[in-house]
């Protein structure tokens, strides 16, 4: 996956400009280096500008050319996504397949992020409704996958020097991309479905936010044994907001591919559920389309800021086409394609291209 999600309060730039290739993120950022020793000027610069880097001004003036400090922040969050992949057990022959390889206390250490100043406080799991048919499990053993899989984690900045450098205590929610057969099947469920009432700002009959059914299912499904990803997020964020209510706080949600889509749904859910939520932003990599125009408008009204990083040379980010209007009758009148895309159609009217493969919407 890796389709484009153009929405209001959202900017998109190419991975070419970040030095990323096949999601192997490389940068000059050294996690073992004490950032505060760079000098008071550098520390104050980031501390005073962090809201700009998280979209408070819609990244105006930061993307072309790409601001060097913003680039470092993007790469830093990319490392947390990479850690979500490193921690996942991809070995189908392993009894721990589709779980996290490491305990919370050593998760970031095993991924080379032990000196970032963050600690993991919660493991996250997503549950699939769709399952592989029984006959396929016997015939194709490598297609078998558990219904509930580890998909990411919540980490909190817990280092005084890093908090000073960042200008606030940062909460990171990081998601991996599609890994199991059941998750791939959920990705294929591309029909649009209405957001649940508790994830909407209003219940207007003719202007309902809609999102891809498979993505929403992964976020909201629970079982007798497994809590939904949504409930886990709400429970953990509620605890964090209560614990750090007297501090400057930010919530940054990041993910790749499927994880990028879940990051968008998570941001939407947090901003609607918690009236006292701090600045919530999304830094996503190669994410698919998630919802319709009304969903985009809801994200805009809720103040959710989304910075999308895509490879502009990747054809996957350009298919399966797009629809400009939600109203099918209007589409037919204007002679536009009448297919519904995988994901959905949101706001391609203002799409434009700038040099070096960077795409803004």
Task: Report on this structure.
The protein has 361 residues and is an alpha/beta fold. It contains eleven helices and 13 strands. The chain has a seven-stranded mixed beta sheet, sandwiched between helices. A two-stranded antiparallel ribbon has the order 2-3. Strand 10, helix 10 and strand 11 form a beta-alpha-beta unit. Residues 1-8, 19-39 and 318-361 have low confidence and may be disordered.
Short structural summary:
One of its GO terms (cellular component) is chloroplast. This protein is α/β, with parallel strands linked by helices and 361 residues long.
First-residue to last-residue Cα separation = 19 Å
C-alpha Rg, in Å?
Answer: 20 Å
Q: How much strand content do the residues show? A: 15-25%
Tell me the total number of β-strands: 13
SS-based class: alpha/beta
Secondary-structure element sequence?
A: EEEHHHEHEHEHEEHHEHEHEHEE
Strands in their spatial order, largest beta sheet: 1-11-10-9-6-5-4
Helix % is 25-40%
Write the SSE topology:
Blueprint: E1 10-14, E2 20-21, E3 24-25, H1 40-53, H2 68-87, H3 107-110, E4 118-127, H4 134-139, E5 148-157, H5 160-166, E6 169-175, H6 181-188, E7 192-194, E8 210-212, H7 213-220, H8 229-243, E9 249-256, H9 258-273, E10 279-285, H10 293-302, E11 305-310, H11 328-333, E12 352-353, E13 359-360
Parallel strand pairs: 1-11, 6-9, 9-10, 10-11
Antiparallel strand pairs: 2-3, 4-5, 5-6, 7-8, 12-13
């Amino acid at each position: 996956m890796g389709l484009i999600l153009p929405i209001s309060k959202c900017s998109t730039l190419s991975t070419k400009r970040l030095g990323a290739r096949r999601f192997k993120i490389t940068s000059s950022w050294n996690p073992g280096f004490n950032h505060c020793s760079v000098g008071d000027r550098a520390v104050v610069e980031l501390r005073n500008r962090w809201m700009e880097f998280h979209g408070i001004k819609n990244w105006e003036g930061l993307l072309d050319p790409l601001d060097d400090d913003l680039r470092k922040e993007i790469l830093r969050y990319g490392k947390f996504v990479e850690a979500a992949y490193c921690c996942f057990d991809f070995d189908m022959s392993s009894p721990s397949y589709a779980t996290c390889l490491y305990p919370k206390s050593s998760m970031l250490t095993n991924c080379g992020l032990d000196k970032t100043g963050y600690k993991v406080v919660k493991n996250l799991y997503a549950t699939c409704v769709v399952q592989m048919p029984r006959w396929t499990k016997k015939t194709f053993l490598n297609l078998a996958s558990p219904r509930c899989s580890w998909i990411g984690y919540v980490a909190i900045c817990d280092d005084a020097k890093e908090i000073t450098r960042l200008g606030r205590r940062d909460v990171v929610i990081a998601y991996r991309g599609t890994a199991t057969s059941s998750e791939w099947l959920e990705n294929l469920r591309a029909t649009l479905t209405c957001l649940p009432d508790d994830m909407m700002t209003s219940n207007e009959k003719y202007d309902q936010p809609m999102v891809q059914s498979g993505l929403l299912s992964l976020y909201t499904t629970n079982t007798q044994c497994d809590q939904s990803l949504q409930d886990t997020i709400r429970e953990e964020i509620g605890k964090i907001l209560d614990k750090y209510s007297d501090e400057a706080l930010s919530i940054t949600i990041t993910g790749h591919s499927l994880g990028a889509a879940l990051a968008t749904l998570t941001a939407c859910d947090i901003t609607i559920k918690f009236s006292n939520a701090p600045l919530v932003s999304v830094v996503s990599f190669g994410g698919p389309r998630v919802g319709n125009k009304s969903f985009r408008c809801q994200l805009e009204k809720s103040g959710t800021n989304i910075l999308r990083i895509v490879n502009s040379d990747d054809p996957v980010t350009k298919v399966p086409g797009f629809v400009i209007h939600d109203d099918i009758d209007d589409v037919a009148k204007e002679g536009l394609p009448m297919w519904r895309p995988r994901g959905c159609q949101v706001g391609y009217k203002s799409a434009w291209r700038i040099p070096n493969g960077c795409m803004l919407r």
